Amino acid sequence: MLRKIKIKRGVYFVAGAILLFVLIGFVSKKQMDKPFSEVYIDIDYSQGNYFIHENDIRKLINAPGNEVLTGSFAGDINLRNIETKIEKHPFVKEAEVFRDLRGNIKAKIKQKKPIARIINNGGFGAYITDAGEVIPLSDNYTARVVLVKIPSSKKYKVSIEEDEQGKGLFEMVSYLEASKFWKAQIAEISMDKRGEMILYPQVTRQYIEFGKAEDIETKFSKLHIFYTKILPEKGWNTYEKVNVKYKDQIVCE
Known about the structure:
Layout: H1 2-32, E1 39-43, H2 54-61, H3 79-87, E2 92-99, E3 105-111, E4 114-119, E5 125-129, E6 134-135, E7 146-149, H4 164-178, H5 180-185, E8 186-191, E9 197-201, E10 207-211, H6 216-234, E11 241-243, E12 251-252
Parallel strand pairs: 1-3, 4-7, 7-8, 10-11
Antiparallel strand pairs: 2-3, 4-5, 5-6, 8-9, 9-10, 11-12
């Protein structure tokens, strides 16, 4: 008797699964046969960056060879091709393109996150993203990030980590990005040909000789002592320069 009950349950389960697959296939086919009327674009602005606008994405979607025409059947549109086209935009981190139940096309866009802006005297300018990518400046928006001045001979193309100095620079700006205090405090970094860095604070008048991007956490710990103990006692504008390059020393002038 128990064996018969188990067999019946198994039959019902298989029959239900087949029916479910048939219904899914039917709904999917109905979606494919629907002419769509709209492309909906959702850009994530939660990080406060506005490099991309809806019109920028529409231009990519409707570029020659990739046109999405209102009234086209949903099944005739290659969503993967549209995703690939959108993801080639220098400020797009990720794109997801799909159909809704009404057959309309939806595109969800995530932007890349810049953490520093680099410039040199040779006219080169770009952003460094939190992934170490080098992306161009934007005509739409200027991100409020730390400014980095590099030697005129440096022109990073794809990644800031193309050489040892670039790796050190990325480690430095990543550290600032991760620290709420130092991110607010440091306005500018100047790096010379040897990779030596000078930091310029937002508020106080003294500049900081930091040296190379080595022992970063230790050097910032010394700077924290300078800002929380030395300056309150001696006066915020007493010193013109503070040097944390040397081990176990804070040199103030």
